[in-house]
Each structure stands twice: as C-alpha cells, then as structure tokens.
UniProtKB/TrEMBL annotation:
It comes from Hylia prasina (green hylia). InterPro entries: FANCC. The gene is Fancc. It holds the Pfam family Fanconi_C. GO terms for cellular component: Fanconi anaemia nuclear complex. GO terms for biological process: cellular response to oxidative stress; interstrand cross-link repair; nucleotide-excision repair. This is FANCC protein.
Amino acid sequence: MAQDTTVPKLNFEYWLDKAIEWGQASTLESQKDVCLHLPQLQEFLHQLYQTIKHLGSTAAIQQFPLIGQLLGRLCWNPFVIGYDESQKTLMWCLCCLYSSEPQNAVELKANSWIRSLLCHLLCSSKWESNEAETSTFISALGYTSADYYCHLVKNMVISLVTELRENQFNGLNIQESTSASRVNAVSIFCVPLITLPDLTPLLETLLLYHGGSSKEILSSEFLEAVNDAFLKKKISLPESAVFSLWLRHLPSLEKATLHLLDQLFSIQLNSLEEVTCVIKDSLLPQAASHPAIFRIVNEIFKSALMETDGTSELMTIIQVFTQLFLQARQNEYKQHKFPLKAYFPYHHQPLVRGLIRRPFELPTTYWSQHLKHISDMVKAVVEDRNISSLIGPFEIWYLIACFGEWLDIAAEQLLKAAVEPDAVLWLLAFYYCPKNENQERTQTMVEAEAVYNHLKMLFSCADLSLKDLEAAVHKVTGTEQCCNQHLTAHLLTNFLLFSPGGQKLAQECIYHISETTDTSKDIYNLLIRTAYRFNHGGEENQRTVKLLNELLQKLTLKV
C-alpha cells in the first residue's frame, strides 16, 4: 500500500484511484491507509467544493465527469464520513450536483441517486443493517451504535445550520455564497427525515431562510412534508418557523385551515373552552396577526360558509377564531402591529373599529348605546346613505358574523336593558336576513318586533305557563312559521334563560322547540356561547350557567 501522502490539492484522478482502492475499508490494511490520508482528503474535498460551488451542476459534471463515482464511493466509507468535517463537505458537494430544475431523464435519475445517497449519510438504520464493519469501527471508538449515530446526526445538523446562518447574511445584510439551488437541494434531502427530532433546528433554519431571489428557494415537497408532519403532531416547531412556512407556501396554509375545520367538525364539542383550546393549539389565530394569513384564512372560512349554507356550528367556530385573533394581535408589541385596514381593507373603518371592541372592554351600561351605534353604521353602509362601499351585503354580513358576540349581546339587551328596540331589532334582522329579497327582511322585522313586544311584556312575570308563551312558541313551531324562525328562536331562548318565569319553563320549552324544528343546532350553539361568556360571572350569572349546563346536557344527544 502506498504511503506517500504528499499529493496535489486538486489531483482528482489520484483521489478517485484511492477511493476505488479503499472500497468500504473492510480490511485492516485499507483502514490504516484511509486514516493516513484523511487530513489530505478533507483538504481536497474542501478545495473541490470551493471549485464547483459556483459552477452549477451541469458545468461541474462537465469539468469532473467522474465526480459522481468519487463522491459515491467516499460516502460509503465509514472512516471518511466519520472524520472531522468530511461528511458535511461531502454533503455540500452533492448539493452542488443536484439539479433544482431537471431538464431530462438523466438529470432526474441523478437527482434520485443524490437523494438516496444523502439519506444514507443521515440515516443510521441503513448503516447498522448493511455494514457490520461500521459497528466494529464504532465500538473501537468507545461508542454504542445509537450514541454514535445520534452524535453524528446532531453534529451534521449543527454544521448545516451554522453554514446556512453564516452564509445568509454578512455584516451588510448581503447574501453570500450559499446559492438558492444548494439550499433547495438541502430542503429536498430533508424530506425523508422530517420527523427525526435532531433535525428540528435545521428545519427551523430552512423555514426562516430567505435568499435574494424573488422565487421560493425551498422545495414544495419539503414545505408540504413539514406542514403534514406539523399538522399530525409528529414534529414540534417554534411559532416563527410555522408562521414563515404558511407565509411562503399558500397550499400549506390552506391545508392547515381545512385540517382545523375537519378536526372541529369530527368531535363532539360540549363547550367553547374545548373549541378555544383546539383552535389556539392550531396556531392559526396567532399566525393571523399577519394580515396576509388573516385574509386567506378568512376567505377559506367564507367559502366554507357558502358551501354549508351558514351552519351555526361554523359560525361559532369563526367567532371564536376571531376572538383569539384579536387576543393575539392585542398581545403583540405596538411597533409590530399592522393597522386594522390591513386586515379589513375594503370595509367602512369606523364600523370595523366599533365591532372589534369586545363587550368586556366596555361598561355594561354602555352596551346599548354601542349596539345602536353599530346598527346605525351597518344600516347606513347597506343602504348606501352617504357612505361609499366597495363591498356588497354578504361581505358586510360576514364581518358582523365574525364579531357575533355583539349579536348575542343584542338579543339579551333587548329583554334585559333599556334599549332602542328598532335599531337592535334591525341589526338582528339584517344578520338573519341579509338579502332582503321580496322585502323578506322587512317582514322579518315586523314579526320579530311582535315577538319582542310579547316577550318583553312577560319578562318580569315570576309565574308563567307554557300557554303564556304559546304565541311566541307558535312562531317557531307552528305550521304558519314566521319569516325567520331562527331569529324568533334566538329571542325566545334568551327570554327563557334570563326571565324569572322563563327559567322555570326553559328545559321543557327548549326541548320541545328542538324536537319539532330544525333550530336545535342553533339553540345548542347559542347556549354554549352564552355559557362561555358567563363562566366567570357573579352569583346571578352562575345560576344562569347552571341552567345552561342542564340544557346543554339534555340537548347534547339530539344535536
């Protein structure tokens, strides 16, 4: 075996001959020779990388036609990849050969070979199952196989993370040597290893990496794989990395939103606490602090509403999401906040500011005045009185629906407080009947006012019978139903919850309405929203919460 280790720095043929001669270093003589040449080999690999990193894959192969054979042989030599930074340098050399946009079958096949070679470099199971000599080598170093490969992967990830971070910016924030094609290649090589815990720092670094190109530099396969693993809770990532993923890859954001809806619809939700927990855990409300994410999620919600004909379950989900979004936005540092117009660019901004104020932020004595203010603005926008609007009734309706907490407050205030009933009833009538085709909203307003007057007259009565409520109940359950039985059911449910006499009849009456109409889900969702708001109330509220819990328990099986 030749012992002369003084060779030219870039003597390609010499090192190819050596790689062929060594094989996988299965004999003692070849192992000794490899060890003697490791420092010079590492220097050669570094020089090779510096030579080809600016060439591009095609030019690199033209200058070194046998480079694939050399690198392939060295990657299967456990002594070479176990030495210092040789494994990292081999990986970067392979990245330089990867075609980010393969033009023919040869380049596609070469890319596939490179991916498998990189998987081999990082995946211990292949070494352990195929290379008995490797185990001997590791044992000689004083490691168990598990320890060795664990440290190897960690060191590899640390090296790649350091390289990416150092090369992304210099002191002047100018992109340095790491090209977009090599970063793209690294992202592809990570795909089979996404769920490896030690790879998480590299995933985070890649997701936060931004080159100078206007095109996306990370592969779509990588972005999709990371998103799938995150949604299935196979990996844990910092919020900043997840937000960056959704900002740079629209399909992942869409899939995350639809996944959340599927998750919420597939489980029996018995309280808004549970809904809140699931939505918050998705990180979507927090991510929505960025206007681009908020608007896309909102569009998906709107599409879902149109497909489901505005189900009460989906409306409740959207309302909770909006509340959590407002909390996340409120928690942001002031200098990082986007203006409201960035989230609602086409809406009448005073109306947005009015709706975005949460009820708990105002004294209860001010609620009625605030509701009238909201109703007046909505009516002015809808009827185009001195307010130019770029949006139609549906968009205005959807905006109000997102802040549906105020609608529930409106229905309560009608019965419990001194309000201007015309303004509040109009707001509720618009929500339940936004189109006003054939004067439907006008008719709804007339009938809702009649129900309201009847219920208001009975509100203070301590002793009531079902007969006293017969007229209102008939509006919901009778054969000659009112224009909008859902609005009437909303008013009647609030009467049963908050009036002294109504509470005694609540279980019987609500269960009867649920049995004889299609409003059971509306009532159920109204009850869980109300229970959520009152959970931290005073003694009076606690009595109401007890009634709410009894009603929810009785209605759970029906819905």
